[in-house]
Design goal:
Blueprint: E1 2-6, H1 20-33, E2 40-45, E3 60-64, H2 72-81, H3 83-89, E4 94-97, E5 110-113, H4 118-121, H5 128-144, E6 147-150, H6 153-163, E7 170-172, H7 186-196, E8 203-206, H8 215-227, E9 234-237, H9 245-253, E10 260-262
Length: 264
């Protein structure tokens, strides 16, 4: 079986585009590359900075686009105009859209991954353009696909409810855990804390800094806890997305000062 995977949401940079979905896609593709089965995988990428764990090999081929698909509008046009042509030329048996979308002009059996439906359930956490596109594309792609995969039971129920997809066509495929997530020995941890000046207890947030992550409410909770006399402090790690400037302003309003550290 020849499987095409649209991985144009994959980014190897250090901006917000390299977080969340990109990490999921990267690790999924690396696992497929190590897979010893008879399938052939055709990967469609926009970012040319390919790491060693995604290097081409027999049965695992890369197709790097010349289009600047890091720009959402360009990526959408590529998915709808170029991807169907490539699918026919490569004689794919199935196409997997790894981020909410499938090409309308292709009639191949298809799978689509829907990570969450926050653009329906919490529309205020998305930009107007992103919300409008996802609300149009995700329901169509989910109903057109032979199978919808998602990453949690909660999201599976949302797909069935909001996108009107039969439950038997929606499957939860839980994300794996990268090798870098592992306990470190006490000496390494102590050395890191000393180098970073992390004396005493700190809370840690990791994620793209956007309204949908609810960091502003976390800052308000921190201010309330400190107002009760508890020496709580917070590290905020993650690349800034839209609306991130509001977080520093909110810290100033709450007079959190050195209690919050943005580490990038």
């Amino acid at each position: 079986m020849r499987v095409g995977l649209n991985a144009h949401l994959l980014s190897f940079g250090t901006t917000y585009r390299g977080a969340g979905i990109s990490r999921y896609v990267h690790n999924l593709l690396a696992a497929l590359r190590a897979h010893a089965g008879p399938e052939e995988f055709e990967l469609f990428l926009g970012d040319h900075r390919v790491p060693p764990d995604l290097a081409p090999r027999k049965g695992f081929r890369l197709h790097l686009s010349r289009w600047p698909t890091a720009r959402p509008a360009v990526r959408i046009v590529w998915e709808q105009a170029v991807l169907p042509w490539l699918a026919r030329r490569l004689r794919l048996d199935v196409l997997h859209g790894l981020g909410y979308a499938l090409p309308a002009a292709s009639h191949l059996p298809a799978v689509v991954t829907v990570y969450d439906l926050s653009f329906f359930t919490h529309p205020e956490t998305h930009t107007r353009a992103s919300r409008s596109y996802l609300r149009l594309m995700a329901p169509w792609a989910a109903r057109r696909a032979r199978l919808v995969t998602t990453i949690s039971e909660h999201s599976r129920r949302d797909v069935v409810r909001w996108l009107d997809v039969p439950a038997e066509r929606v499957r939860v495929v839980y994300p794996g855990v990268e090798p870098l997530f592992r306990p470190l020995d006490a000496r390494t941890v102590a050395a890191f804390r000393a180098a970073q000046g992390l004396d005493g207890p700190w809370a840690l947030f990791v994620g793209t800094l956007e309204p949908r992550k609810n960091v502003e409410r976390l800052l308000e909770a921190l201010a309330e806890v400190r107002g009760r006399g508890l020496p709580a402090r917070l590290l905020v790690a993650g690349a800034p997305g839209w609306g991130a400037d509001r977080l520093r302003a909110r810290c100033a309003e709450l007079q959190l000062g050195e209690a919050v550290r943005f580490v990038g």
